[in-house]
Every structure is written in C-alpha cells, then in structure tokens.
Amino acid sequence: MRGFVREIRADYPEESGAATVTVRCQDDSLQLDRGHVREVWGGDVPTSDSIIVTTILANYGLTPDPDNGAGQSDLTLNQDETDIVFLRRRAEANGYDLLFRDGTVYFGPMQLDAEPQETIMVYAGEATNCQRFDVRDDGHQADQVRFDRAETAGQGTVSETVAPALPLLGNEPATGQGAGLAEFSWRMRRQEGLSEAEWMARAQRRADDLSLRVRADGEIDGSLYGHVLKVGLPVGVDGVGDRYGGVYFVDAVHHLFNADGYRQRFRLLRNAYGDNLDGGSGLLSGVL
Predict the structure, then answer these.
(1) Which is it for strands 172-173 and 272-273: parallel, antiparallel or unpaired?
(2) What are residue 216's DSSP bridge partners?
C-alpha cells in the first residue's frame, strides 16, 4: 500500500485489555487536499483537461496513467478550491473515474473491459476466500436518461434520450423492463453554464451508473485471496450460481488490518446476469 497516515485514534476503556489504537490511512490524494488554490486555467489560450491533469499531478510527483481519457478541450476555467476537489469536478464533468494507484492517477472512463482480477471464490470448499457475499438486485432503476437541450437553430428545445453504453459484464443485460411495466426513464434537470459536451458526458455517465443495478457487498480474507482487490477494475465471482456468478466492477474496497488478520470489505456492481467465467478460472469466456 502507498499513501499517508491520516489519523491515529487511541481508546483507553475501563478494561485495560480492551485498549485499542486505530490508524487510518489515505492514498496519495491526501496531499492534493492540503492547500486552497486560486487559478485561471486557459485564461490567455484555452486549455484542455489533459493539460490540467498533467500539470496538477506534476506538482505532487504523480504520473498520469497512460490509459487516461482526453477529456474536454477549448476550456477556460476558474479554480477556487483544493486540487483534489477541482480534479473531482473535472472528472464529473467528463463522466470519468478519478483513481490513485501506486503513484499514478487514472482520469478516464470506467474500465469495465479491462482484464478481471483474481476471482473471488464463494462456497468453493478449500478454495473459498470470501467470508460473506450479499447481492441486491434493484429492478426499480431507470433504463435510460432523458433531458432537454436547446435546438441548434431557434429558441426551442429538443428532448434527448441517452442509453447505457457500458460493455455487459455477463450474458444477459440487467434491465427493469417487465410484464405490464411502462418504459422507465430518468429525466435530468438542465443546469445553467454547462457546455453541450459536458452535458452529454454527465447524461451518459448517469445512464451508465443506472445500468449497474446489481450490487454485491461482502468480505474476503486477504491472506486466502492473496491479492489486493483494486477499485475501478473488474473482478470475477465464482460459487454463487449461474445468475449472479461472473464478472463484476469493483466500486469500493475497505482494507482492515487487526488481530483477526487482513480483511477486504468490498462493494461490487454489475449490469448483467449470467456466469461468464471460464470454468471458474477467472478468465473471461469471450463475452467482453
């Protein structure tokens, strides 16, 4: 792991044997949150997200990930906040993820088509490394996003519909359509001051997020798993049946070191059903 010790908490209860010291750590993003910055980006010549990200990261000895997205160009922006808050706003404006990994920073689209990490094994006998796996399958999420935009010519508005564009993490798309149910769309409210590029990027990201309607929470034994589960990348799950087994997207991981060992508590997301792992080996079976 790489980062900083953010907080130390020492608790001394009445029973001395129950005393604890808790150390809370944070990744390299911590150093980007320690100074308020006022900066005009593109004041003389319009700039781009790529230039902004590269410039800010260089101030902290961090490197842009080679797979970063280009973001938007022809920008003139005012920064009046810490660097991490500003970068998060730029990621949101592009519908991107912002991830800190081993001295590099990923600023780009969700990486659902990356190579899956080592498979999480549930109910797998001696190969089991997952102590808990709970699935929530929310059928009441919108299947697409609608919004109104100004016409190219004239003063009217045009209604746009944005469908999810993520690759499927399974064999059958997970949708909310069912017998007797009307089409379900989520309408975005128009925000003033947003360019068309930013508006479309936000709408697309919202549609993509809504498509990830299958959520799994659980915990793995870090010693048995033998790997660090990384956020923002796919992972295979085996041993939970044909419907919910397969590839998921890692949305969050909480790492816990204590007297009981090393635990990784995770939240996974999925936009499809069907086991698309090849014999539980952790390799995709040609679906993505």
Answers:
(1) antiparallel
(2) 135, 268
We report the CATH number of the domain holding residue 100 as 3.55.50
**Residue 235 domain-assigned?**
yes
Assess whether pLDDT exceeds 50 at residue 17: yes
Distance CA 266, CA 152 (A): 45
pLDDT at 279 over 60: no
pLDDT higher than threshold 50 for residue 286: no
| Residue 205, domain member (yes or no) | yes
In a domain, 226, yes or no: yes
Domain that holds residue 198: 144-211
Q: 61 and 165: one domain?
A: no
Strand order in the sheet with 104-108: 63-64, 104-108, 97-101
Same domain flag for 196 and 159: yes
Positive or negative torsion for Cα 9, 10, 14, 16 = positive
Q: How far apart are CA 267 and CA 247, in angstroms?
A: 13
- How many domains in the chain? 3
88 and 19 in a common domain: yes
The predicted structure's pLDDT at residue 120: 97
- Give residues with Cβ within 8 angstroms of 95, minimum separation 6: 109, 201, 202, 204, 205, 208
Distance CA 212, CA 247 (A): 12
| End-to-end Cα, the chain, rounded Å | 30
Question: pTM here?
Answer: 0.87
pLDDT for res 91: 97
201 with 219, same domain? no
β pairing state of 234-238 and 117-121: parallel
Across the chain, the runs of DSSP E, i.e. the strands, are 4-11, 20-26, 36-41, 63-64, 77-82, 97-101, 104-108, 117-121, 130-137, 144-150, 157-162, 172-173, 185-187, 214-221, 234-238, 246-258, 261-270, 272-273
